[in-house]
Write a structure and sequence with these properties.
Blueprint lengths: L6 H12 L2 E3 H6 L3 H7 L5 E3 H4 L6 H39 L2
Antiparallel strand pairs: 1-2
């Protein structure tokens, strides 16, 4: 992944999403079950701390991608909201002069 992500922020985000461990059900809900199954050997769940021991793992990459995607969506929504507010201000300004 070409984007550098603060690992503390990513870990906090993952913990917020799934808690301290990740199981198959949660992985399926996040659509990262392939990376999860590649990371799990004979365990039923993965401790979130273990994901951060190998930054090149498929699971780390999947979570990083999910995080960046969510941040991009939030930024786009915020930008759209700011655009609407600006248009509203312009409308109000134009209407005030009538």
């Amino acid at each position: 992944m070409s984007t550098n992500i603060n690992s503390s922020l990513l870990k906090s985000w993952i913990t917020e999403k799934v808690g301290k461990t990740l199981d198959l059900r949660e992985a399926k809900n996040l659509h990262i079950e392939d990376a999860y199954q590649n990371s799990v050997e004979e365990m039923d769940e993965i401790d979130i701390d273990d994901i951060f021991k190998n930054f090149n793992s498929d699971l780390y990459e999947e979570f990083a991608t999910l995080y960046v995607t969510e941040q991009d969506k939030k930024a786009a929504a915020k930008s759209e909201e700011e655009k609407k507010e600006e248009q509203s201000k312009i409308k109000d300004k134009n209407g005030a002069g009538v």
